[in-house]
## 1
Amino acid sequence: MRILLAASAMLACASAADFKLGPMLKPRKGAPATTERLTPHRTTETEPPLIALDIVVAGMPPGETALKDRANWSVSATAATVTHPIALNEVQWKPGVARVTLFFPASELTGFEPENAHWVATFNTPPSQSVTWDPTMKKGPFAAAKSKDDADLYLFGSFLAGVSTKPLFVIDAKGNWMWTRGSWDLGINSAISTNAGAQTPVDRSRIDPDSITAAFSVQRILRWHVPGIEGFDLNLQPLAGQFSRKTAASDIVGAAQVKLVPKPWFGPVRWVAVYPSAGYEGGHNLNQPTTLFKQAVNLSGWNIISRAVVGITGEYYWLSKSPTADDTYRFTIDASYQSRVLFTPEPFVTVADIKGQAVNTVTLDRHPRPEAEAHIAWNFSKLMGLQIQYKYGSLPPLFQFVDHQATVGLTFKAKHSQ
Amino acid sequence: MSNNSPAGAAFEKPPLTPELCQAIVVRNTPKPKNFKKPEQALGELGVVDAEQTKFHKKDIRDDLKRIRYKIDTNNIKSGAAVSVSDCSASVQNNAT
């Protein structure tokens, strides 16, 4: 019996220790406990106007009675440097939505709107916990980005000067703009790079770009109310241009793709998702190089670009026990296959073994160009993971063929715990 | 003019309660029947990848629109590792 009592006490202590008040949410109009409901309802002037403060909570409270006791809470609102203590009407504990809600009469607020005040709520039962809410600050047009991949606008420039080399300028820039018009998401993506991989010494200074890409894209989600189907993901790229000095390739291509998005299968921990897609790419090649890979080539028939694209992506996800942003999946497989059916001739680059040497050969024809990729990631512990990547096929614009290529990688990541 | 008579009562936007926000978040996941508790990750309700996340955010926005609330999908926290509670808090904080 004593053991049972001790175990219960320990459990209660553990639960109490786990109980944490999270962020406070935006103040809202509230209704007494008995009338808060999920659906719209008629309101009359007879209902006393209330303000509700919702607080996100984690874990179980040490005692529900103490939590719901108004005397254990102190709440204040600060507006225009004046702090107003607030007398609560009621405290609700809502385990079904992991919230504590504090109600008070709107008449407690005089001369300011609840959404314009700084709020502090303190639960005074030891250990005392406080949460705050501040009015949303007006966001400026820019926020800090973590990296180039995370950035919408990125500019890197450097100038190198030294003995035995001409000055070297490096410019790496990208600009992405996204906006929404009704149900459409529109975007412009562009990037430019100059001397990004150049090594000193250089015999001349140049700032001609090595590569330029620019695209205007339009995206829309279309619902399809069929059991098991979410809808279609429509991606249009009416205009996209690219230039690469390395391969002397440049083109202007428009593309349209529609992807069917079914609901994932199985769950709740292991899921399978399959996304078939179909589309079209059309445009014009802007450059017919006479030499490629240090060989003379005849690409005079490479003008109009017209391709149908069909593909499918399959994914398998095994979620972590408690998914977090850094540790979402225990195991994933994603495999994609797409085939481009060409209506006009385009280059195809393969590697041939000529007299023991690997030599790139370029042909111009219309045979279909498949491309397959697969990735496997297995995080068998929080410290170690295995990645396997597989590639096969070729991609535009030059369709350089990759023949069954696999990469296996092992990751170990840890930091000192002290 | 008084709103005391039933005929004159105003039909207002429903208050954006935690219960309503959670109901909107859960019913717009691919598998709402998998919901057990607010701390549960949305991944367990089928929001397993970027494609499902895109649909989840758009469906939440459309659902809010039906009850005359607006929200920018960029302000909705969703994804496999996001909990139902955090997603519903982002809806409550950002819907206007």
## 2
Amino acid sequence: MDITRRRLLMLLPAAAVAWKYVQAGTFEASPNYKLTDHWWAMLIDIPKCIGCGSCVRACAEENNVPEGYYRTWIERYHVSDWNFERPEVESPNGGKQGFPLNQDASGKNFFVPKLCNHCADSPCTQVCPVGATFVTPDGVVLVDKSYCLGCRYCVQACPYGCRFINPKTNTAEKCTLCYHRITKGLTTACCEVCPTGARQLADLKNPKDPIHEFLRTHTVQVLKPHMATGSKVFYDGMDGSVR
Amino acid sequence: MASGVRRGGLNLLKDIEHLIRLAAVMAIALVAFVILRAAVVPRSFGQYGHYRGAAIAEIASRPVAFAGHNVCEGCHTDVVDQKKEGRHVVVPCEACHGAQAKHADDPVSVTPAKLDTAVVCARCHEANSAKPKTFPQVATADHSGGLACDTCHQPHRPKIEPTADTKPATERNK
């Protein structure tokens, strides 16, 4: 086919439209990132957590989380010897400003940081009627806020209470595992600021990641294993009373 | 046809005319549906699954607020050396100093605020029975009486080494 001026002029708009779609599917900011090379997880070492709230503050700043809502939060457990089944759990302001001194120092006291478990078989993505939330090929549960209707199905479906409706956008919001950071080779904001290393980002598909050695040599548990959600946030040293 | 002369072909066409109309309406509706769907459904929908594939790149392209300690350590090598001498070597810079990606992008015009050690240190070191027993904790009111922690401690290397000034008077001349 000869390219005449007329044909070229006809082709150009079509090519421009096509290029827009080509660009939309590429990672401009992280050209070397391959979705299929990663399977993200997190490791939380409960005996190392000091409940300082650095992770909660960092998450709010990194992700513009509205005041009073939390993508990650810290719970303080108080477990008495005689009532193991009913621990006292508190999380004042998500643990953002730390914790006041507890009145009852008897029994067992410890902190449990929580966040989205980035489940491989996540209940929240299964209930979305419009395909606004999904598990990415690298194992992160994300929300497409331009597609979300704000129907709240996912908020109810999450067994861990990790989702909320952003009062400004009226769309579902949750931990993205700092997707904009981990795709650029950085760790998440919460892991970055944790002063004791209680939180560690882990890539289960990377054979050199220290997570493999850790999982082999420690007794590790996930939250609510009976829900069979395929949770990828692993807790080391977790007490049986943790819900 | 109004004349009443009936021929086979025309007769058949007339008998199924209502079906042809129906088929035409359905064909138009189908074409309209296909065109509308192509216009409304984003091109990348279904690229990886039942969602908009381009959303992944959109979420990934957000700017970062925390630069990461590797970036800090590129310039502040003196602090790195200082931290190596003490237990705060494991504490990342932005745990205390806050998000500094803007400072890293433009170190001259964006400078971090000076920290109030009485507040920042207490976030981690204020005594609490839920903290691990091995973690150094103090009741700040009793420990310093409201004095800023950096009056005595150097935050990057917090252990107080006994010098001529800080040694107890009985040990000064040993």
